[in-house]
């Protein structure tokens, strides 16, 4: 009986922890040109995240994006992650010069960009610009 009681407590704890975690944005995807262009054609809010796994600024930005871009606030937002190490031609095509660059779009219109910043308010403002 103690095994079942311990299992029930473990299950209840995992459900409580899951419920307390912030919700994810509507959609996160690795960058794909065709998907990006389709999202632009649909007029969707889009955030490009030029990310390097080894970059501490990129990690900080990613945590802020996940906290801000909730499904309730941005149900149509798609965040495309561009791999800084393997997609050099892609990030260069957007005029990016270094990792930790975030570029916001509303459909085909660029609404803003920031580079190498971890300011949570500026990142939140940039994400908000995708919905205007």
What does this molecule look like?
This protein has one domain: Glutaredoxin (3-Layer(aba) Sandwich), CATH 3.40.30.10. It has five helices and five strands, in the order αβαβαβαββα. It has helices at 2-20, 33-41, 56-68, 88-93, 120-129, and strands at residues 27-30, 45-51, 78-83, 101-106, 109-115. Helix 3 crosses helix 5 (120-129). It is globular. Mean pLDDT is 86; it is low at 3-25.
**Residue share in helix:** 40-55%
Count of runs of 4 or more consecutive helical residues: 5
Mean pLDDT: 86
Largest sheet: 5 strands, mixed
Number of distinct beta strands: 5
> CATH class, please?
Alpha Beta
Give descriptors for this structure.
Glutaredoxin; single chain; alpha/beta; 132 residues; 5 strands; five-stranded mixed beta sheet; 23% strand
